[in-house]
Write a structure and sequence with these properties.
The complex is a heterodimer. Chain A is an alpha/beta fold. Chain A folds into 2 domains: about 15-205, P-loop containing nucleotide triphosphate hydrolases (Rossmann fold, 3-Layer(aba) Sandwich); about 210-270, 2-Layer Sandwich (Alpha-Beta Plaits), CATH 3.30.70. Chain A is about 35% helix and about 20% strand. Chain A is built from 10 helices and 12 strands. In chain A, the strands form 3 sheets. Chain A has a 6-stranded mixed sheet with strand order 4-5-6-1-7-8, with helices on both faces. The model of chain B has no long low-confidence stretch (mean pLDDT about 95). In chain B, α2 crosses α5 (about 95-125) and α6 (about 135-160) runs antiparallel to α9 (about 200-215). Chain B is mostly helical. The chains are: A alpha/beta, B mainly alpha. The interface of A and B includes residues 57, 74 and 85 of A.
Chain lengths: ~280, ~250
């Protein structure tokens, strides 16, 4: 089975980059190739110039990966877990940084608790901390907020944004499109192992510049000659797609002209979900 | 060096933290073997001239414990890490396959030696034991533990599930240990089984180890040592090949 085919992309230094796609699109496989967990049949991946196969030591030192699965070693405490992880990267006496990471992730109180005793959200924080023990300039977060409560999600994003501001490049995969929309400067959308779209978040949203207008009128039926396209009609309720904001004025004028009274109106700007649905042809 | 040392420390901590299960339990098992077989066979069986059966049995039990526990350490640690997924932390780090191999085998070796020493310390109170050539004892214990640690690593790499590993343990390791002459001298066997025993690498480990205690063995100890070292070399190379290829670890 081919998980990825012809994927070619470069994340810029210091960028907050999103990798989106439905289940099975190849997001995790792509990350695993970068992390050296999966060896591609052909092609190559580099982390800040270091080939992940030939210069694996350098590539892995430059990279911190937060895996999607909530994995942990039940034999150790939080602090032991982080010390061991630092040691795997050849770092000795790294406690000051470990304390700082624990502090930022609100783990200090749990430093000496066994991993087994932590809640799912806490285990997720430890995973983030483990990815940061060696201060990697590139951080990959594979679905970091899956199954995480709202409070932790907010805290996590604050921390990740701070890391990004401090110069870390962030690569994020997520199912939550609003997260990608809120944080990512550029986005690649994967579908069936290929890149379906790759652009800045702004351009992606801009390329779908249409508005969706939801109308509740005082009568059944729309007057003829309205701009745009009717997406749905249900009695006195209508959903209208307009090509651009200027059409809104024309639509309102036409309604007035026809003597129709608007009881309620909602205007929805395009969101990533729509872009996503159109590009991938299925919901996330 | 730091990476190797950390991984090895992690492996050592892993079994020290549950030492009741990983050290005390196998020591008790060996003691039970000594009590039961010693009681049943003492006075009925004389293997070496001037050596009581229980005395003969002790080095065999020590070596059996060394081998089984070295195997158990590397194999169970790796399979657990694979099943729970936490092997990813090691795979993400810049640890080479040689460091990976050395850390798992060294930790397995330490567990084997610790358990073996425990069995010796506990059983030595019940029997009279000579120590003719301690260097042979040490050489066979170290090589045997390393060999089984390396075999355990292969079993851990190849297995995807606990029952596959259990099959390896029950159908390969257990029969080879029990038929290695732990409880008897192969000279007491019919010629066919004697010849078959010579194909069992475990026999050379037990026989050579016992030579260190009594100065008597079924096979020349230097030849045994060479055979064990040869097996260790082959198994290590096979291991390094699998790890380098990332077989079942990096898809």
């Amino acid at each position: 089975m081919r998980a990825l085919a012809g994927v070619s992309l470069a994340v810029r230094e210091g960028e907050f980059f999103g990798l989106l796609g439905p289940n099975g699109a190849g997001k995790t496989t792509l990350i695993n190739v970068i992390a050296g967990l999966v060896r591609p049949d052909s092609g190559h991946a580099r982390v800040m110039g270091a080939d992940v196969a030939r210069e694996y030591r350098r590539a892995r030192r430059l990279l911190g990966v937060v895996p999607q699965e909530l994995v942990f070693d039940p034999f150790f405490t939080v602090r032991e877990t982080l010390r061991l992880q630092a040691g795997y990267y050849g770092l000795r006496r790294n406690d000051a940084w470990i304390d700082e990471v624990m502090h930022h992730l609100d783990l200090t109180a749990k430093a000496d608790a066994n991993m087994r005793s932590l809640s799912g959200g806490m285990k997720r924080r430890v995973l983030v901390a483990q990815a940061l023990v060696h201060k990697p300039p590139v951080i990959v977060l594979d679905e970091p907020t899956a199954g995480v409560d709202v409070e932790l999600r907010q805290g996590l994003w604050q921390f990740v944004r701070r890391l990004n501001r401090d110069g870390h490049s962030i690569v994020l995969t997520t199912h939550y499109l609003e997260e990608a929309e809120a944080h990512c400067q550029r986005i690649a959308m994967l579908k069936d192992g290929r890149i379906a779209a790759l652009d800045t978040t702004r351009n992606l949203l801009g390329s779908f510049s249409g508005l969706e207008v939801r109308l509740h009128l005082d009568r059944d039926g729309l007057p003829a000659g309205l701009p745009g396209r009717v997406l749905a009609a249900d009695g006195t309720q209508f959903r209208l797609r307009l090509a651009n904001p200027a059409d809104l004025e024309a639509a309102l004028a036409r309604l007035r002209e026809a003597g129709v009274t608007i009881r309620e109106m909602e205007v929805h700007p395009p969101d990533l979900e729509e872009v996503f649905l159109r590009l991938t042809g299925r919901p996330s | 060096m730091m990476r190797f040392a950390t991984l090895c420390t992690k492996e050592l901590l892993r079994f020290f933290k549950v030492s009741v299960q990983t050290v005390a339990a196998p020591v008790l098992t060996a003691l039970l073997y000594l009590v039961i077989f010693g009681h049943a066979l003492e006075g009925r069986l004389q293997v070496y001239e001037g050596v009581r059966y229980t005395s003969f049995l002790v080095p065999g039990l020590v070596m059996m414990s060394v081998l089984q526990n070295a195997f158990a350490n590397s194999s169970s640690s790796l399979i657990q890490s694979k099943i729970t997924g936490n092997i990813v932390f090691v795979l993400l780090a810049p640890i080479s396959y040689v460091e990976f191999f050395a850390a798992y085998v060294l930790a397995a070796l330490v567990r084997g030696i610790v358990v073996g020493a425990g069995v010796l310390v506990v059983t030595v109170w019940f029997v009279e034991l000579r120590l003719e050539a301690p260097m042979w004892v040490l050489a066979f214990a170290l090589l045997g533990a390393a060999l089984l640690g390396a075999l355990g690593l292969i079993a851990g790499v190849l297995s995807d599930k606990i029952d596959q590993l259990a099959a390896f343990q029950n159908f390969v390791i257990m029969p080879l240990t029990f038929l290695s002459g732990v409880f008897y001298s192969i000279h007491s066997l019919p010629p066919f089984w004697q010849r078959l025993s010579h194909a069992n690498p475990f026999f050379y480990m037990v026989d050579g180890f016992r030579y260190g205690f009594f100065g008597v063995s079924d096979f020349p100890p230097l030849a045994s040592l060479a055979i064990v070292a040869g097996f260790l070399l082959v198994v290590s190379l096979l291991n390094l090949g699998l790890l380098k290829a990332g077989y079942k670890l990096r898809s």
